[in-house]
Specification:
With 356 residues, the protein is of the alpha/beta class. It has 13 helices and 13 strands. The strands form two sheets. An eight-stranded mixed β-sheet has the order 2-1-3-4-5-6-7-8, sandwiched between helices. A hairpin with a 3-residue loop joins β4 and β5.
């Protein structure tokens, strides 16, 4: 939420205080509310101060903490906030805080696992900067400090020398004044199609609108559903999340992506749900929609459904109504047409009339 600049203050090596933070921050313009130090924010700020003061007598304290972001939350993405984020010219250092001073003794591993999950999500999102991402977990237990780095999907313990090295390995990038100009929902364009296997492992977060659509569909109180939107609105993300949910419920689920995406098939072939594309490896009739008629399923999700013909839509209806427990979800882009604008309008209207 705020950018904290401590360069001038760090010329003196006496301990940083809460007043120093309050007097040296800039609010991100995307946030209308003033920054308030209270509740959870106050606890995290105290941990931030503990972190900085750990290095207050080090000669590299200025380049390490001269400018960083605290408590940043990506607008319209429910992924929590970034406790500490330092943008350097060749790397990005993300440090997530956990204070277990009041936790039970047996909670340490549980909190480490939660930290691992959060760091994996943040690590994926921060790839937008196109530079090395260094993800660190900082656990505070009263006077004891523990640091872990995310490496190959696991947490490895590191020391304070490592922390200082990561923070100062590259010069601070002062060209990014407002983090929201770079790290926002529009620039991320989160999709299983463009973010690889991380999306299958559910390392993504949904907007309120996407979650609302999912909540309506998972009840399956209708035979047919439509999910529609323009490019970059997260339609495919909704499709994959629905496939995950229905598969976890024990429903035989197929996600049919109507394009020639061999890599997509390879990435998701061994997951709980089955993925078909127009050129899925190993299929007897590649490149043809008719492959769906060979499958048994409870839920069929068709992504890029604007590519269907009216004949295929009618055939799909007959297929769905062969069994009482079958459902179909059509996902399409209302801005894209495969052949002509006129035909595209006809197909989309046919789909909507069909579902109604």
């Amino acid at each position: 939420m705020v950018k904290i600049t401590l360069k001038q203050r760090l010329f003196f090596n006496d301990a940083i205080s809460m007043d120093d933070i309050e007097n040296n921050y800039t609010l991100d313009e995307k946030y209308e509310k003033e920054f308030e130090i209270k509740g959870k924010t106050e606890l995290e700020l105290k941990q931030l101060i503990t972190l900085i003061n750990k290095f207050i007598n080090k000669s590299l304290r200025i380049p390490a903490f001269e400018s960083f972001h605290f408590g940043y939350k990506i607008p319209q993405i429910s992924c929590g906030d970034f406790d500490f984020l330092k943008i350097n010219k060749t790397n990005v250092v993300n440090i997530e805080f956990k204070d277990i001073s009041l936790a039970n003794t047996g909670d340490f591993e549980r909190i480490k696992n939660k930290l691992l999950y959060q760091l994996k999500i943040r690590n994926n999102l921060l790839s937008i900067f196109n530079r090395e991402v260094i993800s660190i977990g900082f656990i505070l237990n009263k006077t004891d400090l523990y640091f872990y780095r995310l490496e190959e999907d696991q947490l490895n313990e590191i020391n304070t020398t490592d922390i200082l090295s990561f923070l100062t390995r590259s010069a601070t990038d002062f060209s990014i004044s407002m983090l929201s100009d770079v790290l926002n929902r529009e620039s991320l364009n989160i999709s299983p199609i463009n973010s690889g296997s991380t999306s299958v492992d559910k390392l993504y977060d949904l907007t309120d609108q996407q979650q609302g659509a999912i909540n309506k569909i998972i009840k399956l109180d209708s035979r047919y559903y439509i999910v529609k939107g323009g490019a970059g609105t997260g339609k495919s993300l909704v499709a994959f999340e629905l496939a995950n949910i229905f598969s976890e419920q024990g429903k035989n689920t197929i996600l049919f992506f109507l394009a020639q995406e061999n890599k997509l098939y390879e990435q998701y072939d061994r997951k709980l749900f089955k993925v078909l594309t127009l050129s899925s490896n190993g299929d007897d009739i590649p490149g043809r929609f008719e492959k769906i008629y060979q499958e048994d399923f409870n839920v069929l999700i068709i992504d890029e459904a604007q590519r269907l013909t009216t004949k295929q839509i009618d055939r799909t209806k007959r297929l769905i109504e062969e069994k009482d427990d079958r459902h179909c979800i059509f996902v399409f882009d209302y801005e894209q047409n495969m052949v002509s604008d006129e035909e595209g309008i006809i197909i989309k209207q046919y789909l909507e009339d069909f579902v109604d």
